[in-house]
Sequence to fold (311 residues):
Amino acid sequence: MIASIFGKTKPVNHIIVVTFLFLFYWLVHFFLFKKVYAAEEILWQTVILGILLFSVLIVDFIVKRNKITLANSYAILFFGLLMVLFPETMTDNHAILCNFFVLLAIRRLVSMRSLKNIKIKVFDASLWILFASLFYDWAILYLIVVYITIYIYDPKNLKNWLVPFAAFCAVLLLSSGYLVLTDNLEFFRSHYKFSILFVPEYYLNWVSSTKSIIYVLGLFVLNILTFIQLGNAGVGKIVTTRIIVFFLIIGLVIDVLVNSNGQYPIILTFFPTAVLMTNYIELLKREKFREIALIFSVTIPFIVFLSTMFL
Fold:
């Protein structure tokens, strides 16, 4: 049943996921975390929600435009289910905004496989990553993936290696102009501290720690299974998948460095995880096994969420 719906690319699939996340967002804020907002705060949260929902469309655009997956809607389904598994991410506005810009960067980097306009794509990706770092300073680590992608596709052109510095200057000028207008020039000094925020209480909480451990172990197994079965795929898809895995690794590193109460950068791993899960589901030849895997993928996040909400 799930495969019959999301196994195809239909506009109704986008409507289902976007509508669900719209309702789930307010459920998490008002009922799970019991947030109270003033009128102007509701407006700001609505803007954040709009960016989150637009992120779903970007996820779908990336996988379809670059043929990372087959013609289905599993990626946006898994992206939404990961929100259910980690509902706390919906309360972290900085994480949602940071993830939005990282998705824009991924979009440009994976499109480099066409070997067209490489410098422009490197500049755009670097620009978006630097904007993402304005919300989480450690997001600047994603520039490592930019240089890895340059090394993969066009390492002999020296200008490619210098383009991220041009993007850095552009972001510096734009953000400095804004900070001058808002009289907040101390932002850079106070924001880019690159400190490690380790809160033992977060990891000692059995719900948070158990979810995180199982999630990381599941990703490790998923990576192995996916790459084993991708052995017969084309070189282009394998390389693209490796780039996405690099984004996953950096996302996990940032989650370890920053994770604390109120900050949940685990959302940065949702897109790479959704892609890997989609690739694995596609590689299951028997419809019966595929449907069973999808049922488990849908029910487990809701079981975890309900246990968190009522226990």
